Amino acid sequence: MKLVEKEKARILRKKGYSINQITKETGFTKSSVSLWVRDILLTKKQMKVLSERGRSIESIEKRRINRLFNENKKRLIIINEAKKDFTYISVDQLKLIGTILYLGEGAKTYRGMVRIANSDFSVIKIMMRFFREVCNVPESKFRGHIYTFVHADVDKTEKYWSKVSKIPRSQFFKTYIKPSSASLQKRNTLPLGTFDIYVCDTKLFLTIMGWIEKIKELIVGKMKPL
């Protein structure tokens, strides 16, 4: 089998193929191809073609890198300009932000239990500020719950979410570890799992529901049932 592979590599080399071209064409390893064809001398014409092709590939790559750099530069200009629209977040703005986030991400069926889960640390940080600064939730009422996957470093994960939320690990429920092999993809994309914030407070739950309903009324109006 090796003799057949060697001969194929040598034929391509004699035609003027580069080592990289032969490797790409055949799937053989670069080290093997280099060894098999090392005694084959290319003609001046073949060397010139490879040299010009190499410069062409190099110039294409440079243009690609420059294009990406310029595109990223333009994006950053737009992003940085947009950031100027906000200089600070007031308590009223934080109230609106937190309520809207809860509308999209929070649990709305557990009466008496405020709960919101996310894998994005910034969402957790925003909601913790919302609960502390807007809702005045006492620190003792916070509970944290982590959902993660097999082979996760539980200690590292708990320390991470405790640091993000500033909820002591002593106030965490036992971390849930999903055992299914089907969770492999999520384990790779969510190495630190997801974090749930819990606050057991009926009045707060109903208050947030009231804020949500009022915001919906102000923006989309009252909807009659079908």
Overview of the structural elements:
The mean pLDDT is 88. The chain has 2 domains: 79 residues, no CATH class; 130 residues, no CATH class. Helices cover 60% and strands 11% of the residues. Helix 7 links the parallel strand 2 and strand 3. Helix 1 packs across helix 2, helix 5 crosses helix 6 and helix 5 crosses helix 9. The longest helix is centred in the first third of the chain and has 40 residues. Strands 1-4-2-3 form a 4-stranded mixed sheet. With 226 residues, it is an alpha+beta fold. It contains 9 helices and 4 strands.
Chain-wise SSE layout:
Blueprint: H1 2-14, H2 19-26, H3 30-37, H4 44-83, H5 91-105, E1 113-118, H6 121-134, E2 142-149, H7 154-165, E3 176-178, H8 184-189, E4 194-200, H9 202-220
Parallel strand pairs: 2-3
Antiparallel strand pairs: 1-4, 2-4
Helix pairs in contact: 1-2, 1-3, 5-6, 5-9
Low-confidence stretches: none
The total of beta strands comes to 4
Number of domain modules: 2
Q: In one word, what is the shape?
A: elongated
Tell me the radius of gyration. 30 Å
Note the beta-strand portion: 5-15%
| Sheet with most strands: strand arrangement | 1-4-2-3
- The average pLDDT is 88
Note the main sheet: 4 strands, mixed
- How many helical elements? 9
Portion in helices: 55-70%
Instruction: Please state the oligomeric state of the protein chains shown.
Output: single chain
